[in-house]
Specification:
single chain; Neuraminidase; 11 strands
């Protein structure tokens, strides 16, 4: 991928998968092919907000731009402006807070189907795909491997 800091029309991506607009009109795009999340600002500039383009899992508790993701697939924006990413092949949901710090909010990283009713970080998911918030602030997660939609209740 390329183009950070320049016009989005001149940037390259490798498998943009999902996108969401924030309240300010910025567009966030998961680029599964390079394992990054990009932001296209309202002025048309593009930047990376999560991922290093190195496939894997690392970086919780640090800057999202130094973290490793594994084919981010889905994306949603929380009520506080935080970005939620389905880290597909890591079987986790990651959160980029408004200060740019990334954490895991759901999933153990082990593929499976367990943990309903308990802490989201102790739950096992398959390949997590799309994300959406419901009207109550719960995060809905499409788990393709297990052929189901799961709900994570807050606070996230």
């Amino acid at each position: 991928y390329s183009g950070d800091g320049g016009p989005a029309t001149a940037a390259t991506m490798d498998a943009p998968t999902a996108m969401v607009l924030d309240d300010a009109g910025n567009l966030y795009v998961t680029d599964a092919g390079t394992s990054v999340v990009r932001k296209i600002a309202v002025d048309g500039t593009i930047s990376t907000v999560a991922g290093t383009a190195e496939y894997g899992f690392a970086g919780d508790g640090g800057p999202a731009t130094a973290a490793r993701l594994a084919r981010p697939d889905g994306i949603a924006i929380g009520g506080d402006g935080s970005i939620y990413i389905s880290d597909r092949l890591n079987s986790r949901i990651r959160k980029v807070a408004t200060d740019g710090v990334i954490t895991t909010v759901a999933g153990t990283g082990m593929k499976g189907m367990s943990g309903d009713g308990g802490p989201a970080t102790a739950a096992a998911f398959g390949y997590v795909s799309r994300l959406a918030f419901d009207l109550d602030g719960g995060l809905l997660v499409s788990d393709q491997t297990n052929s189901c939609i799961r709900k994570i209740v807050g606070p996230l």
